[in-house]
Design brief:
Layout: E1 13-15, H1 18-33, H2 39-52, E2 75-80, E3 89-95, E4 100-105, H3 121-124, H4 127-133, E5 141-145, H5 146-155, E6 159-163, E7 167-171, E8 176-180, E9 183-187, H6 189-197, H7 211-229, H8 236-243, E10 247-248, H9 252-262, E11 267-272, E12 275-280, E13 283-288
Length: about 290
């Protein structure tokens, strides 16, 4: 019998705190002491680490410029499983008037222009095209491997979370084994990956709303991770190592501009792309709302 437990969404908004200010100082220290050989990359990976977890890091190396010559384009952040499938797709938009970062979770089951799903578009090299069809003119992509994700969770000693349901799943083809009990517990990197990737078991049981419930659980994890991350002392070497495995197609100039913008953000809102699930020819798709 299918598990009928519904997942209650967490509060999907957060703002900066003293912890964020302390982390800003740490990041500035790293940037000031690292050699220029990887200067642009360091800016990138710090920026990307902040984006991945749907939370925030505040940092600014100088006062904000007095003018913005061009509109600020969104950035896409994806979790890369190494096979071209992305279970995590986020779009980040800046509201310059209110200094707010809007994080939009994109369900991987959004139907793509090719008839497949947007979750495979990063591996196919068409993610930015698909996002434009959704109304997001993203200027670049930041990719995060699950290896980097596991390392980040382990580095802070795990994340405390109330796992909503028992999770079991096996897929030898992609080397994915999930075996996670429900209840309050501290998740290490391996089990945190199980949490954010789980949707159903091999019999088809699992979340009532499939990928939508998974997105809600992912969001709850982001909040718990950030709370722990901002209050855990890590050496600069460990911190730098964790984020050095991230990748992007953005130029150094674009990275520098986004870094400057991060220093002015006062609030972050995390929302799900509006829409609903539909089944077509036995396949579940997410259909965005028409606005």
């Amino acid at each position: 019998m299918k598990n009928k437990k519904h997942i209650k969404p967490p509060f999907l908004s957060t703002s900066f705190s003293e912890s964020g200010k302390k982390l800003r100082t740490r990041i500035e220290n790293i940037l000031n002491t690292k050699k220029r050989r990887t200067g642009a990359i360091m800016l990138l990976v710090i920026f990307a680490a902040a984006l991945l977890f749907g939370g925030f890091v505040v940092f600014s190396r100088s006062s904000a410029p007095t003018e913005q010559p061009e509109p600020i384009r969104p950035v896409a952040v994806v979790g890369n499983d190494g096979r071209g499938m992305s279970d995590i797709i986020l779009v980040l938009e800046w509201d310059d008037k209110s200094n707010t970062l809007e994080v939009i979770q994109i369900p991987r089951d959004v139907r793509s222009s090719s008839g497949g799903k947007i979750g495979t578009s990063y591996g196919e090299g068409t993610l930015l095209d698909e996002l434009r069809l959704l109304g997001y003119d993203a200027g670049g992509v930041v990719s995060v491997s699950y290896e980097a994700f596991r390392g980040a969770v382990d580095a802070i000693g795990g994340v405390e979370l109330d796992v909503p349901i028992d999770m079991r799943y096996s897929d030898p083809e992609q080397g994915l084994e999930i075996d996670l009990k429900s209840g309050e517990q501290t998740l290490d990197g391996e089990h945190a990956e199980m949490l954010i990737r789980y949707r159903k078991d091999n019999s088809g049981s699992g979340y009532v709303n499939g990928d939508l419930d998974r997105l809600v659980v992912q969001n709850g994890f982001y909040s718990s991770f950030l709370d722990k991350f901002l209050n855990t002392e890590l050496s600069d070497e460990v911190f730098s190592s964790l984020i050095s495995s991230l990748d992007t197609d953005m130029s150094a100039g674009e990275i520098a501009r986004y870094v400057e913008l991060m220093g002015r953000i006062e609030n972050i809102n995390i929302t799900l792309l509006p829409g609903q699930q539909e089944i077509a020819e036995g396949v579940t798709y997410f259909v965005p709302s028409q606005e």
